[in-house]
Structure formats: C-alpha cells, structure tokens
Amino acid sequence: MAIKRKYISTRLLKEGMKIDQSIVDASGRSLIEKGAYLDDFHIEYLQEKGVGGIYIQEGTADPDESDAQNDLERLPQYTREVIEKNRVEDRAKVQLTESVRKRVSEGIQFLYNNTDSSDFTEATNNVANELMDTITANDAVAVDISMLKVSDEYTFKHSVDVATMAMIIGRKHGLSDRDIHELGISGLLHDVGKSRIPNEVLNKTSRLDDQEFALMKQHTLFGFEILKNRNEFSDSIMRGVLQHHEKINGKGYPLGTTGDKIHPYAKIISVADIYDALVTERPYKSAFAKSDAIEMIMTMTGELDFDAIKSFLNSVILYSVDSIVQLSNGEKARVVANTPENCLRPKVVGLKTGKLYDLYNDLSCASIIIQ
Predict the structure, then answer these.
(1) pTM of the predicted model, to two decimals?
(2) Does 63 score more than 50 pLDDT?
C-alpha cells in the first residue's frame, strides 16, 4: 500500500500514528518533527495546545519493511529460519512509562523555572529517583537512543536525555547506586545555569555572536553558583555541573581544566551532552544522523575521556532488534542481534536473500555499512 497523507482531528489520534508535518512554536522551533511516531505525550500536548488536527501518513513505502516489522510469517521460509536462529533480544533497556514521562517532564520544568524555590532540592531528588527506579526496575544496562523523549521543549528534553544516558553510562562504568543517583542529579541540572541567560540569547534562532556566545558559556558557572548557594548538593554534583564543557586537552570552558582534574561525573555528562546536542535539530542547525553522531564521538578521544566514550558505546542501542535497516550493498535487512562492542555494526539478516551479515565479526562484511 502506498503512503497517503491524511488530515485527522487530534481527537482521533492514536499512539503509533506517523505525523506528516512538523509542529513548530512561534519562534520557529521544531516541537514535533515530521516523520515522528506519535505517543500519548505528543497527543496530549497537541490537544492541550488546541491544535484542531494534523496530517499523518497512512500505508508504507516498502512491502518488505511492512512484512518484516509486522508479519514475520510473510517472509520466505529460509529467511524466517535464519532470523529465528540468530535473533537475540536486546539487553535490558531503560523504558519510561507514560506516567513516568509525565512526572519527569513536570519535575524538570519546575526545576528550571524555580531555581530559588524551597522545594528545589526535593524536586531534584524526586526526578532523579524516578529515573533511578526506572533503570533498576528491569535492571537496565542499555539505552535505546532513538526512544528518549519526555518533552518537546529542548532544554527539558535535553536535560532528561543527558541524565538518563549518563546514569546508564555510569552503570557500565561500575559506579555505585549512590554515585549513579548523584550523577543523575548532576545530569538533570547540568544546564540549570541557562535559567540566568536572557531569553533573547537563549532562544535566538540564528547563530550567537561572540559576545552572546561568551555569555552563554557562563551558564556552567551560573549553574555551579545556583547549587553552591543552596548548600544542599555534594561537591561531586556541583563539579559535574561546572565542568561538563571542559575538555581533556584543556580547550574547554569555563576554566580550561585538563585531564584528571575534571571530575568523573563531568567526563560522563560531557559525552552524553555532546551526543544529544548533535542529534537534536535546532533553529540554527540540522540534526546529525545518530550513526554519524556516534562516529563523531568516537573521533573525539583528544577531547573526551576515553573510558567515558567506551562506556557510552557499550551502553547505547542504535538499531533495536527487529528494526529494518538499509545496507550499502542495496539490500534491506532485519536486525537480529546487537553487538555491545560496536553499536554501529549489529548482526542482520537480508529480507529477500536470508543472508546473515555479521557486520562486526565477519571480515567479509567489512565493506558493508548501514546507511
């Protein structure tokens, strides 16, 4: 069935529908990107904002993809057998339920809008506890980086994305539960200093000039001051906030701190922060493909902590098992197993040929990439 564009009332929207337009705010910022699959949070947001209706996509552009995603039985017998023989469930992943998403979204918005509140510290712990409970509930050791989303407002979404990824990286790093919880707090608040940046700078839709960028770089100091003045956060949490833009080679900010002088929390947050910023579309830049962003992270060993990079790469799932990918040899394939050592090169099975491609271990597949 070919793709059709259909206008539908927001009252009739259902989870899983694919939006065929971008939803933007008055400043031109993309709130819901075209091609996104709607979830309950999206639908509730659209209804609350009084959006009468939107365009969605119906149908699919490729029968193979539909078959592989929705009806394994329609694939050739040999292909089914190869898939079933080699399929390995993904490692336990962070899964935010709709109720958790809502509580976390409300909590993070409160934090960034009420830094002087007497409830600030308690609210911070509550949000971190929500994330910690979610991670420990199914013993999550990985994060599906295509599924993180708690808000359509960049600052809030980014803060929770970074905190969640940082906590999972911290787990891979072997941190204690106490340290992971602190790391989550530091990740949630890493950009809280931006609450002191004027909106005309913070929400500018074009690139910042030198003066504006110098002011923006002060957000790490502002954040550190906000937490220090409360006298309720550990030194480790505050250093994670202060140093998350420092670089191993000393070319970061605000102080040009180097190497081991950068706190481990900051080293981990830095990797998660850069990745999430790369893959997020902003008014002044396009989003990088997730695979390209990961490759960029892999090249930054002179700037980012090598162990933090390794833990990041061992913690993320780029192509979930059962997802459909396009190979550089022209064949569509189904992901049957991920490779913890390299999330860019899973094990896949060609939909038509039934050929198994072990992209990481099989040297004959060295020239094949996922496009």
Answers:
(1) 0.79
(2) no
